[in-house]
Amino acid sequence: IWRQIRHCGIEDLVEDHGYVSHELAIQKMKESDLLLLLIPKKYGTGILTGKLFEYLATHHFILGFGDPRGNAADVIRQLL
Question: Which residues pair with 75 in a beta bridge?
């Protein structure tokens, strides 16, 4: 992912905090402008991660990558 970020020249727009406590992760989500949700395509259907609901609670933009027919995509589309 970082290779692609550097290739696009947007590394100054992306922050990687590494592993942090859940409390700090929630705080960082609330401070973010955009939240990235990655769900491998092979797990796209039938999966709703807890992370999705944490992201939804922030009311921030979510950039999701995964199966467009998946359950997470359905939930996100319902909010559009």
Answer: none
